[in-house]
Each structure stands twice: as structure tokens, then as C-alpha cells.
Design a protein that fits this description.
- The protein is an alpha/beta fold.
- The chain is built from 15 helices and seven strands.
- It has three domains: 170 residues, Rossmann fold, CATH 3.40.50.300; 48 residues; 74 residues, Helix Hairpins, CATH 1.10.287.
- Helix content is 51%, strand content 12%.
- α6 crosses α9 and α10 packs across α14.
Length: 325
């Protein structure tokens, strides 16, 4: 990292709601940056992608999480995929540590990092170096919280930390319990990640005080278009073996409770496999909850006024060119 620190390193972030096509756009931009013309223009040696997805970190969660395949990567290196066991919780703090290590390594090799994902909390944790409360698991407290219904857990979080309650999946018991655990132990709300005002240049203290200049590109889709994309994707996932994937996870030792905690597709497919809901109910619930999830994602992203929203690749490419000149 011998570069003059007064000159910021550049990072591109590709974000947007579920099913909007983030991975495809990130690969297209990375391929473009690997061309001879781009290398000459920008002075970089290509690009690599860091995934910012809270479920794609888990091994075996491929179809249901929409994890990019080797073929779809088109030779572009991807980081932070398949780094954790689905049997255990992988925290945002763990993600932050591994992602920052990958970021530093990419920069050292003279390449451009492209952070790609829909988990806004993970993106912000990486690029803004937020310090999370060091609260280890509290077995006794968890045992007490587990006695409460999911509705009661959410109501409790709304009272203790209304800001966190706005952005959490109110059906995800694991996240509700963890959020309450942190609030009850620290006796204060989970600190918000503060987006620095002004321009997009920020400093990360954890990676050798490197300055970053960040371009955030958001994929814009209308609610109606997004609804169709979610439906099309869901039917494709069912066709290529999503139910079988959940069966295999169960056979490998992932508990029903854990599958439920993994949310969306894994929650409702596992309930279908247990005979708790019909196939039609499973499909309807995944569609409905995915649409709600997309709304929560957009609520998170809308607070960041530095995101450039784009409807097509050409506009994203032009933004990238201007940013790297």
C-alpha cells in the first residue's frame, strides 16, 4: 500500500433491491475494467468483486440466496462467498473483518474493488468501518428471549430500539434475539452507521488509515417491474432445484429452526417440507415476503443521498468512466 495516502483509493459499490440484477451489472463493469483500453485509461489492473450479502456467505445456500455461479462470474474473482457454515450464525462484525481483509488485498494488487450486494448494513459496515458493540452470546438471556413469540420479540425491540426495528425482518427470530441481546446488555440502542456528509471521500481507520473515494451505483426498478422479476426468479429457482437444496441442507445437519432463521426461501421451503404449508402457500409467501424485503432494502438505501440510481448498463458504465478518469 505504497500509494500516496493523500490520493484516495477508489471503490465502486453496486447495490439495489433483491432481483434487480446487481451481480450481472458488477460482472459487466469488472470485465470492462479488465480491458486494455480501460487499464490504459484508468491505470488499474482490472477489478475484483466483494459480495455484500448476508446469506451468500454461507456454504450450501446457493439457489435460494441467488449466489452467482462460476459460469456467471466469467472469470472475475469473487470474495466473501461460502465463508461460513450454515449451522452457525455469521455476524456482521465477522463479515466486516473478512471483507476489509479482502479489500486491502485487492488494493495491494493494484486492482479496483467492486462491492456488490443488497445487504445495506454489510455494505456500510465495510466502507465506513463502523465499530460494533463487542457483545458475546448470552446463553441465559437468549433462553429467556426464546420463550417469547416472534411478535413479542419484535414489539420489545420496537420499544427498546425503534430505529433498528424499522430495518429488521420482523419474522426473523434469530436477528430479533441478537438485536435485543445487544440492546439489553449495552443498555442502549444499537449505534447507527453514520454516512459522512459532503463528498464521497472517507477515511477507514482500520485499514492503515487509507482514504477511499467511493462511487455508489444503485439499480433502479419500479415496484411493478420488481414484482415481476421476483416472480420470474422464484419460478426459475424452483425449476432448478431450490427445494432439493433445502432438503440437502437438512440432511447435512442444518436444523429446521436454523433454516427458518435463514429467512425467505429457506424459511418457507422448510415449512413446506415439514407439511406446515402447501406448495402454493409456500410460493405465495416467498413472493410476498420478498417484495416486503425489497421495500426494506430501499428504505435503507434511500437515506443515502450519494447513490447514483440508474436504469441501464450504459448509464452505469458512463458513471464508472467519469469516476475513474
Amino acid at each position: 500500500m505504497s500509494k500516496n495516502l493523500s490520493t484516495p483509493y477508489k471503490i465502486i459499490v453496486i447495490l439495489g433491491p433483491t432481483a434487480s440484477g446487481k451481480s450481472e451489472l458488477a460482472v459487466k463493469i469488472a470485465l470492462r475494467l479488465g480491458s486494455r483500453q480501460a487499464k490504459k485509461l484508468c491505470g488499474i489492473k482490472g477489478a475484483e468483486i466483494i459480495s455484500a450479502d448476508s446469506r451468500q456467505v454461507y456454504k450450501g445456500l446457493n439457489i435460494g440466496s441467488g449466489k452467482i455461479t462460476k459460469k456467471e462470474m466469467k472469470g472475475i474473482p469473487h470474495h466473501l462467498l461460502d465463508v461460513a457454515s450454515p449451522k452457525r450464525i455469521f455476524t456482521v462484525a465477522q463479515y466486516q473483518k473478512l471483507a476489509q481483509k479482502a479489500l486491502k488485498d485487492i488494493l495491494k494488487r493494484g486492482k479496483l474493488p467492486i462491492v456488490c450486494g443488497g445487504t445495506g448494513f454489510y455494505i456500510d459496515a465495510l466502507i465506513y468501518d463502523h465499530q460494533f458493540p463487542a457483545v458475546p452470546p448470552q446463553p441465559k438471556l437468549r433462553k429467556e428471549l426464546e420463550k417469547l413469540s416472534t411478535e413479542k420479540l419484535f414489539e420489545k425491540l420496537q420499544k427498546l430500539d425503534p430505529q433498528r426495528a424499522k430495518n429488521i425482518d420482523k419474522n426473523n427470530r434469530r436477528r430479533l434475539v441478537r438485536a435485543l441481546e445487544i440492546v439489553l446488555v449495552t443498555k442502549k440502542p444499537i449505534p447507527k452507521i453514520i454516512i459522512p456528509p459532503g463528498n464521497n471521500t472517507i477515511t477507514s481507520d482500520s485499514i492503515e488509515k487509507i482514504n477511499y473515494n467511493i462511487l455508489k451505483i444503485g439499480i433502479k426498478k419500479s415496484p411493478a417491474e420488481l414484482k415481476k422479476l421476483i416472480k420470474k426468479r422464484l419460478l426459475k429457482r424452483l425449476k432448478i432445484g431450490m427445494i432439493k437444496e433445502v432438503e440437502n441442507l437438512r440432511k447435512s445437519g442444518v436444523s429446521w429452526k436454523r433454516l427458518d432463521d435463514l429467512g425467505l426461501e429457506y424459511r418457507y421451503v422448510s415449512r413446506y417440507l415439514r407439511g406446515l404449508i402447501t406448495r402454493k402457500e409456500m410460493i405465495d409467501l416467498i413472493q410476498k415476503e420478498s417484495e416486503k424485503y425489497a421495500k426494506r432494502q430501499m428504505t435503507w438505501f434511500k437515506r443515502d443521498k450519494k447513490i447514483f440510481w440508474t436504469e441501464n448498463y450504459r448509464k452505469a458504465e458512463n458513471l464508472t468512466k467519469d469516476f475513474l478518469k
